[in-house]
Amino acid sequence: MTPEPGLISYTRKHRSIIAAGIALAFLAQIVLILGIRYLPIDLYDKLFYSRFIFWGVVALLFFYANKIEKQPLLLWEKGSSDVGFFIIAVFVLYLISVACGILSALPRLFGMHENDKVIKMVQKVLTGHDALIFFMSLTAGVTEEVIFRGYILTRLTKLLKGKYLPVIISAVLFSALHYGYNSLQELIFAFLIGVAFGTFYQKYRNIKILIVVHFLIDMISLELATHLLKK
């Protein structure tokens, strides 16, 4: 496998370290989230405290990348800094996210039963709590992009041959993180977003755009959902 310009060519030992880092990045989130789920506290507190898990995982990966892998956490930060490109990319990616939302709803439109219980519970708890919605959206935008695109995707690209397989695997892992909602529509949406964002990051190497779009997706959808509940 030809090494990417500007990056080291991994030995077998390096590849093992990278693979362990990918497993750590995903499993640490799952284990800690499950731990929060079974704490004897209400859902509002679970939503609040669970956000710190993602910030903690980013800090853990920063340490792992710098001290164990001996390389930066973000390997692909060489994207365009043009303001016009930034604005257009945010707009286009958000439109793509809307298309992903429509596609993810197709099973429901064709009569498949969708379990909305968990999502509706979360929306009900968040109603009237704009500060928590902002905090959750900001956390998701920054930490999930850093973890799944900035860390996992870049390492998979170094370990696997081919351009598309790393994107697909990182999207599957990103979708699996949303399993707790017990919603097929949410899983499909997360997978499609993972593919779209992963493809964009491979081509343009600009994670800041992904962070902004991810934040907007969560912030707007949660605000709209809770506003409709108020009505």
Verbal overview:
Residues 132-219 form the CAAX prenyl protease 2/Lysostaphin resistance protein A-like domain. This is CPBP family intramembrane metalloprotease. Pfam families: Rce1-like (PF02517). GO terms for molecular function: endopeptidase activity; metallopeptidase activity. Keywords: Hydrolase, Membrane, Metalloprotease, Protease, Transmembrane, Transmembrane helix. The chain has 231 residues and is mainly alpha-helical. The protein has one domain (12-230). The chain has nine helices and no strands. The protein has helices at residues 12-37, 43-69, 83-104, 106-109, 117-126, 130-159, 165-176, 184-204, 207-230. Helix 2 runs parallel beside helix 6 (130-159), helix 3 (83-104) crosses helix 9 and helix 6 (130-159) packs antiparallel against helix 9. The protein is globular, with a radius of gyration of 18 Å. The relative contact order is 0.15.
In short:
The protein contains 9 helices and no strands.
User: Beta-strand percentage?
Assistant: under 5%
User: What is the number of helices?
Assistant: 9
The proportion of residues forming helix, as a percent range, comes to over 70%
Q: Outline the low-pLDDT stretches.
A: 1-8
Salient structural properties:
single chain; 231 residues; mainly alpha; 76% helix; metalloprotease
Set out the fold topology.
Elements: H1 12-37, H2 43-69, H3 83-104, H4 106-109, H5 117-126, H6 130-159, H7 165-176, H8 184-204, H9 207-230
Helix pairs in contact: 1-2, 1-6, 2-6, 3-8, 3-9, 6-7, 6-8, 6-9, 7-8
GO molecular function, one term: metallopeptidase activity
Pfam families: Rce1-like
Domain CAAX prenyl protease 2/Lysostaphin resistance protein A-like: 132-219
